[in-house]
Amino acid sequence: MKNVTDPFLSLGYWPSAGSFGFNTDILATNPINLSVVLGVLIFFGKGVLSDLLDNRKQRILKTIRNSEELRGGALEQLEKARARLLKVELEADQFRVNGYSEIEREKWNLINSTAKTLEQLENYKNETIHFEQQRAINQVRQRVFQQALQGALGTLNSCLNNELHLRTISTNIGMFEMMKEITD
Questions:
Q1: What pTM does this model have?
Q2: How far is residue 174's CA from residue 166's CA, in Å, rounded to a whole number?
Q3: In this structure, is the dihedral angle defined by the CA atoms of residues 11, 13, 15 and 17, taken in order, positive or negative?
Q4: Secondary structure of residue 109 in the 3-state scheme
Q5: CA–CA separation, 57 vs 21, rounded Å?
Q6: Residue 113's domain spans which residues?
Q7: Cα 166–170–171 angle (5° rounding)?
Q8: Domain assignment of residue 57, yes or no
Q9: How many independent structural domains does the chain possess?
Q10: Where are the transmembrane segments (predicted)?
């Protein structure tokens, strides 16, 4: 039977028997090692690498589909948001217009009520002035009447003496008696 190690012995220089060493001939060992490693990797790794690449491809495709769905949903939400924004802007414009109209209406109502209040105050002022004028006139009349009465009494008291006084009283009593007889 042939020795299994015979082919390897002829490939390079082996040190003397009984010792262990390395083959330092780079040109002889590297291409062989690389071809063996590559051959084993390709033979055994082809299925694993293919599965890994297929799984990665499926994950990428799934991520792309999810991204497309999310993009579609986001676009739909964006359109809805734009529609709501437009609606809100229109409502805001309407509120603004209505608000300005309401403010203008309130302004005119306030101006009108203030004008009415001022007119009422003017009327109250005029009535108060008229009342005060009448009161002043009445006070002046009373004073004039009191002074005239005091003057008349003073004149009567100075002009009347006892005799004239008794004669006036007798005349007045006579007039009362005649009136009494007429009424009876």
A1: 0.36
A2: 12
A3: positive
A4: helix
A5: 47
A6: 35-134
A7: 120
A8: yes
A9: 1
A10: 32-53
Determine contact, residues 21/15, Cβ cutoff 8 Å. Answer: yes
Count CB-CB contacts under 10 A for residue 165: 13
Contacts of 160 (CB under 8 A, 6+ apart): 168
Do residues 31 and 23 make contact, with C-beta atoms less than 8 angstroms apart?
A: no
> Contact at 8 Å (CB) between 140 and 132?
no
Largest separation between any pair of C-alpha atoms in the chain? 202
Contacts of 29 (CB under 8 A, 6+ apart): 12, 23
In a domain, 3, yes or no: no
Per-residue pLDDT of the chain (184 residues; tens, 9 = 90+): 445 444 444 444 444 545 666 666 666 667 777 888 888 878 887 888 788 889 999 999 999 999 999 999 999 999 999 999 999 999 988 888 887 888 888 889 999 999 999 999 999 999 999 999 999 999 999 999 899 888 887 877 777 677 777 888 899 899 888 888 887 7
